[in-house]
Every structure is written in structure tokens, then in C-alpha cells.
TrEMBL record:
Part of the ABC transporter FtsEX involved in cellular division. Has ATPase activity. This is Cell division ATP-binding protein FtsE. Gene3D superfamilies: P-loop containing nucleotide triphosphate hydrolases. SUPFAM superfamilies: P-loop containing nucleoside triphosphate hydrolases. It comes from Yimella lutea. Homodimer. Forms a membrane-associated complex with FtsX.
Amino acid sequence: MITFENVTKRYTVSTDPALADVSIDVGRGDFAFLIGTSGSGKSTMLQLMTRQITASRGAILVAGRDLRTLPDRHVPQLRRDIGVVFQDFRLLENKTVTQNVAFALQVLGTKRHRIKQMVPEILELVSLDGLAKRRPHELSGGEQQRVAIARAMVKKPQILLADEPTGNLDPDTSTEIVKVLERINKTGTTVVVATHDERIVDLFRKRVIELHNGKLVRDEQLGSYIAEPEPGVRRRGRLVN
Ligand SMILES: Nc1ncnc2c1ncn2[C@@H]1O[C@H](COP(=O)(O)OP(=O)(O)OP(=O)(O)O)[C@@H](O)[C@H]1O
């Protein structure tokens, strides 16, 4: 669903690349955490996937499209296949929950009767059905993030990208949000979550893709936040089998 082949991204010629020779393959229906310290290249990777920026070198394939050759006029179509959520929710403050979600469908040109039908369905998916008439300031952070996820999911994208989705949330609420993402993933959507949140990575034990200074340093199924040492390597004085 998302393939990077030897991708390098340089923002300026004089500095080190933000992403250096990265190759990954995220299949349909996968769930991956993208981790790494600040500045390691996580946001750069997400922005390359949506073609907000283009690679300096290498090939990127997303939902069957080669982003090197995709004409600009086809980029909106690509973005219909990709839902994105952010740390800061980015909701429309003067609109209710229903209106925030409906607005995302209106801009796609969806007919009014379809919007009326689809919005309650999607609110149910993120367990927000009781809060449809509230405005963002009347919601908790976790509820606001659910609205943002609902809004990203209305177009039924094949891929959901989340950039630090639990960054503003307390631990219990963060767990609930990742459970929502997991539920969406179980419906077949490919989910990639860029995060610094060590606790959720260790709790959910999904695939972990780790960057360091723009380089891919780990790609592990059922990974934890801190890489497990190789067998035979000493860790805190104990030999790991
Ligand atoms: N528009 C830009 N112009 C120049 N350099 C940039 C630009 N965006 C990012 N960079 C640089 O590219 C590198 C990777 O940044 P990126 O934002 O992808 O990291 P990140 O892992 O997402 O960090 P964070 O966790 O802090 O969001 C950093 O050195 C950053 O300074």
C-alpha cells in the first residue's frame, strides 16, 4: 500500500538529508508505529506519502500510484485515499461535531442525503454518537481527537496517517485513541502512526519502524519502543538469550 524504495529527501543542498536512502513496504491493512527522536524524519516521511513534498531521489508508491510521475492534477485524488490526523486536532471551532464531519464530505461534493446517512455511521465508529451537537470547546481532548479521526475517515480512505495523535492527551485517553485507530485498522484501513509515545508503542506491540538522523534503523514486527538487544548481547549485566 505504501512503498519507499531508496528514498532520500534533501530540503537544502548544504545540509544533511532529512531522509537518507530509506526503503520500507507497508502492506494493505498493516498497522505501523513510526518512531524516532525529534528531527529524525518522521514528518518528512508522512509528507512524502501525501505528496505535500517530493523526494530528491528514490521511488514512492502509495495506493497503487507512483508519486514520481503522478501529475499534480491527480494529487487531490491521491489525498482522498489518505486520511490524516494531527496532534492539535484542527477542528472548526464554530461548528458542531456533526458539522465538522459533514463539512469534510461537503468539500468532496457529496450529496446532502448521503451526508445525513454517513455522518451518524462514522460517529458511531469512533464512539461519539452522543456528542453530535457539541462544539469543540465543549469536548475533552480525547473527544476532539475522535472528531478529527471521524473527519479523516468519512471519505473511507485506504490509508490513515496520524502525526503524534496522542501528543496532547493523558495516558488513559491516549490508550483510548489508539484503540480507535486499531478498530479502524481492523476494518481494513492501513494505519501509520508517527509518535514519541513510548507507552502506547509498548502497550499495543505493533510493527515499529524507527528512524535515526533520517536513516531507517529498525523495522520490526510486534516491536517495543526501545529495541530489544540481539541474543547474546549483554543488557544491564545480564546475557540475553
Ligand atoms: N521545510 C523544511 N526545510 C528545511 N529543513 C526541514 C524542513 N522540514 C524539516 N526539516 C529538517 O528535516 C529533518 C527532519 O525533520 P522532521 O520534521 O521530518 O522530523 P520529525 O522526526 O518529524 O521530528 P518531530 O518529532 O520533532 O516532529 C530535521 O533536521 C528538520 O530540521
